[in-house]
Write a structure and sequence with these properties.
Blueprint (H helix, E strand, L loop, with lengths): L5 H6 L49 H23 L8 H30 L28
Helix pairs in contact: 2-3
The structure holds zinc ion.
Length: about 150
């Protein structure tokens, strides 16, 4: 059997261990009321992999979303530079700044979700025999502290 694509499972927010189960309860990135779009399953509904493997596990995702944001801004700067261009005598740079900021704000919900998918994929590896093997046991989990980000 072919290994499911890493990029596709990131974009679709799939569990990194089986690449079948959903990490998030809602599949709507923009269901932001009450933070519903970032509520995660406690365990992968398909293979049972816990989605929170340590206390405060997703704290580090702020660095991931920061890096994604900077990468996006670099990309949009280059795109603007080669299409519209910048000039010191007009305010095109402020147009780029404002539009880039606006797009980043609009992209925040999917960026937050992809950051978590990326983060957990660095700690939980794909297991081709996920049906037979048990997920690794997680220690030091404080149930009251889960999903409180
Ligand atoms: Zn899974």
């Amino acid at each position: 059997m072919q290994t499911p694509s890493y990029i596709l499972s990131l974009i679709n927010n799939k569990c990194p261990r089986c690449k079948k189960g959903d990490l998030f309860i809602s599949n709507k990135a923009y269901a932001i009321k009450n933070g519903k779009n970032v509520k995660m399953h406690e365990k992968c509904p398909v293979c049972g992999q816990p989605t929170e493997i340590e206390v405060g596990f997703y704290y580090g995702t702020s660095y991931v979303s920061y890096a994604l944001t900077v990468a996006f801004s670099g990309f949009s700067f280059a795109l603007w530079f080669f299409t519209i261009g910048f000039n010191l005598e007009d305010n095109r740079i402020f147009w780029w700044l404002s539009l880039n900021a606006l797009v980043l704000i609009l992209l925040m919900p999917p960026i937050m979700r992809i950051s978590r998918s990326l983060w957990i994929s660095w700690f939980v590896k794909y297991d081709p025999n996920w049906e037979k093997n048990q997920p690794k046991h997680v220690e030091r989990i404080v149930p009251e502290q889960m999903n409180n980000w």
